[in-house]
Specification:
168 residues, elongated, 6 helices, mainly alpha, Ferritin
Length: 168
């Protein structure tokens, strides 16, 4: 499962790269910047790869990365597709953590918790951007605010704030 997740993370990075390029070509520099910033999925891929190799007995397998899906129709479609990819990735991470728990592989269970938290943050972040998009794309006096949304995303945080245990 961990080897499959290496490639899932690589594919996620491909999707972000592809959609960022699409946004950039369509003059959405802020959205492109945000999406390029989320290609850190490659770092997640590498983290899992190193865990497999360093754990002993395992050997990471690198396979071909699937091509990114077709370009989105518009920004709303892009954001919805990104959210779906994040939710799908969360389900895969949950399967790894569940299997580790069932097999009493506490090292992998503990390792997986970092990814569980990251996915919570990713989904929260994308949901927040979709909320902003919905507000920005609602017509007010015949005008939309996509320009301001794009400008705001140029310097937007790449992380979402979520409650942490130490805050309770």
């Amino acid at each position: 499962m961990l080897n499959k997740q290496v490639m899932v993370e690589a594919f996620q990075a491909q999707v972000y790269l592809s959609y960022a390029s699409w946004a950039e070509v369509n003059s959405f520099a802020g959205i492109a910047n945000f999406l390029y910033g989320h290609m850190h999925e490659r770092e997640h891929m590498f983290k899992i790869l190193k865990y497999i190799n360093d754990r002993g007995g395992g050997k990471a397998k690198i396979e071909a990365i699937d091509k990114a899906p077709e370009n989105p129709k518009d920004i709303g479609d892009c954001l919805q597709k990104i959210l779906k990819h994040e939710i799908d990735n969360s389900k895969k991470i949950d399967q790894i953590v569940n299997l580790a728990h069932e097999e009493k592989d506490w090292a992998t269970f503990s390792f997986g918790q970092w990814f569980v938290q990251k996915q919570i943050e990713e989904e929260s972040l994308v949901n927040g951007i979709i909320d902003k998009y919905n507000l920005a794309s609602t017509e007010v006096d015949g005008n939309t605010s996509l320009y301001e949304m794009d400008r705001d995303l140029t310097n937007a945080s790449q992380e979402a704030e979520t409650p942490r245990e130490e805050e309770f």
